[in-house]
Amino acid sequence: MSEYLNEGTIILTTEPSVYSYAAAGGKMEGDGPLGSCFDYISQESDFGESTWEKSESRLQQLAFSHALSKGGISEGELSFIFAGDLQNQCTGSAYGIRDTGIPFIGLYGACSTMAESLVLASIFVDNNAAEYCAALTSSHFCSAERQFRFPETYGGQRTPTAQWTVTGSGCAIVGKHNNPPYIKGVTIGKIVDLGIKDANNMGAAMAPAAYETIKSYLKVQKKTVNDFDLILTGDLGSVGSEILYELFRKDGVDISTVHNDCGLMIYDFEKQDVHAGGSGCGCSASVLCGHILERVKKGELKNVLFAATGALMSTTVVQQGESIPGISHAVHISCE
Amino acid sequence: MSEYLNEGTIILTTEPSVYSYAAAGGKMEGDGPLGSCFDYISQESDFGESTWEKSESRLQQLAFSHALSKGGISEGELSFIFAGDLQNQCTGSAYGIRDTGIPFIGLYGACSTMAESLVLASIFVDNNAAEYCAALTSSHFCSAERQFRFPETYGGQRTPTAQWTVTGSGCAIVGKHNNPPYIKGVTIGKIVDLGIKDANNMGAAMAPAAYETIKSYLKVQKKTVNDFDLILTGDLGSVGSEILYELFRKDGVDISTVHNDCGLMIYDFEKQDVHAGGSGCGCSASVLCGHILERVKKGELKNVLFAATGALMSTTVVQQGESIPGISHAVHISCE
Question: Cβ contact (<8 Å) for B90 and A312?
């Protein structure tokens, strides 16, 4: 049974378990520092498909099927799939799970979708509205770049603040309280827009939303940053992470000692030319489902606040001169 | 407390109430047979804004603010907004509610979004995960046409099976059990794709999904079509509605006696040139929130099964030769 507190924060009193989890990625992700954590790495960007859109759907299918098989759960045991992605009309997800026959809730939270899907899956399980649920998302460098940024063939230069869209997918299967990791609480974020208009500086657009959501969970739950081994943002990258530290510093809080960002973890900044870091729904999804959940399960991390971050613009509205709204949703994951 | 039954169906044991509801629309919707049911009609398509995207956000704000004021509910009393729309990256919703400061769950269910948002809002309230929630969606003829169909300036001819995107928005505020209308149960649909590739025949693409979802709710709840005064699909239009009847006829069921479709109700087929009917998220949203919920509140309709329908393609994947996946979510609304 859930308990709504305030400011978007909900306590999950039955503490649902993440039964299993898996991540799939591309070659560049496999070459990064977390390469060995992925359950599947494709050496080919196309994943054997004829379009980038199908490649992304295939990527999502790979994370989904690995999560099911690792957990010994069949498709038929799933009540619902919560999924979304960055493609227009979220077709990466819709076409990816089209043939499963499993009831589907489509989400759009941009790069916050892994947290958004995990929030909803956990709330459904906590309240007997579902047995097992899958939380699933992805991004693919090629489908995202051609949709959001420079057409590749223009040879446009990437700015220093730009981030690199991760080719990756993560899937978590949530079920009733059993073994760790447990989901103890969530904060559903509000939109925060401080006027950033540079679509090549999404870290700056999203950092204030991450700040508000993390601050809200800590305040409502009467916790401090030191109650967590790790406060993990989605894809603020180097620019956004510095802004997050500065926002907390103004409150007299040093979050830097327990903070890391999926966009800073997934690539090797020395060897891989990713500018300000990784981004995309698949960034936080694959770092969470490939690396972090396993560390919580083993007890290496006791309490993690996973705050994925999203930038809710489209190319159309940015070209019309609009600023970029940010959002962040948080999930408290614990081994205790 | 919710009770998960089977095949995507959930019983809401506390039977949350729809506290208030409102609809906003454009001139053409105001000229239609339900024109007097709208809370706000704009004579100008631009709603006083400089882009079609902003016009749609403004439309959503109008439905939202009218629903709040009709219910005597302040923005600060809302726990969450569940919203989505058809624009790429769902910017109609994100920019529409950006300034509210209310925690936001972004959805993508194409034209099924009104049902999807109402499902989630009801489940949150049923389980104490929220106090009041808003379920909100919209579509705008101009933002949708330029994104999905022919560029207007080409002068392309519309096919007979094509539907007309409604300029409309609906908002429902859900809270704890109080007065009717009540939400008694929901079915979250699975994706159904029978291979339709014609993006100008979305009724045909969505009808099999509506059939599966309605059949599932009836079966799991051990009800027949005659237990409902009205089974209301979202925007199958004339072509899709006939396919729905045929699918039920094969099971020996005549659904036509209790069925209607929002896409058939919103325009005057004699006087308004809408081919196969209305469509868009705002079609089912404004018919439900402007017309149907009021009739349930008054007891004129006792039991309504609202099954909004969505087509989950994008222009990109359709151009790549893909077929169109359909989805439908159902909400059982009752005055009893």
Answer: yes
pLDDT at A329 over 70: yes
| ipTM for the whole complex | 0.97
Q: Any alpha helices (H) in B18-100, and if so which ranges?
A: 27-30, 52-71, 91-97
Residues pairing with A3 in the sheet: A11
| pLDDT category of residue B167 using cuts at 50, 70 and 90 | very high
Q: Taking CB atoms and an 8 Å limit, are B53 and A313 in contact across chains?
A: no
- The burial of B104, by beta-carbon neighbours within 10 Å (0-12 exposed, 13-18 middle, 19 or more buried), is given as buried
Look up residue A291 and give its DSSP letter. Answer: I
Task: Give A-chain residues touching B312 at CB under 8 angstroms.
Answer: 89-91, 94-95, 106
A36/chain B closest Cα distance in angstroms: 32
CATH number of the domain encompassing residue B156: 3.40.47.40
Residue contact B128–A1, C-beta within 8 A: yes
Report CB contact under 8 Å: A103, B7.
yes
DSSP states of B134-191: EEEEEE-HHHHHHHHS--GGG-PPPPTT--EE--EEEEEEEESS-SS-EEEEEEPPPP
Same domain, A193 and A166: no
Q: Is B228 helix (H, G, I), strand (E, B) or coil?
A: coil
Same-domain status, A140 and A287? no
Point out which residues pair with A22 in neighbouring strands.
Answer: A171
- Nearest-by-Cβ selection for A91 from B79, B100, B312: B312
Nearest-CA distance from A155 to chain B in Å? 23
Whole-prediction pTM = 0.98
SS3 A223: coil
Q: Report whether pLDDT(A145) > 90.
A: no
Q: What is the residue-averaged pLDDT of chain A?
A: 96
Looking only at Cα atoms, what is the longest distance across chain A? 53
Per-residue pLDDT, A68? 98
Same domain (yes/no): A207, A130: no
Q: Which of A86, A88, A212, A329 to mutate against chain B (most B CBs within 10 Å)?
A: A88
Q: Which of B133, B151, B175 is the last residue of a domain?
A: B175
Chain A positions touching B151 (Cβ under 8 A) are: none
Task: Report the residue of chain A nearest B54, measured CA to CA.
Answer: A317
**Listed residue (B286, B299, B305) closest to B21, CA to CA:** B286
Is the distance from CB of A132 to CB of A19 less than 8 angstroms?
Answer: yes
Name which of B129, B189, B314 is nearest A91 (Cβ-Cβ): B314
How near does any CA of chain A get to the CA of B306, in Å?
17
What domain range is B241 assigned to? 182-334
Shared domain for A157 and A188, answered yes or no, is no
Residue-wise pLDDT tens digits, B249-262: 999 999 999 999 99
Residues B323, B245 share a domain: yes
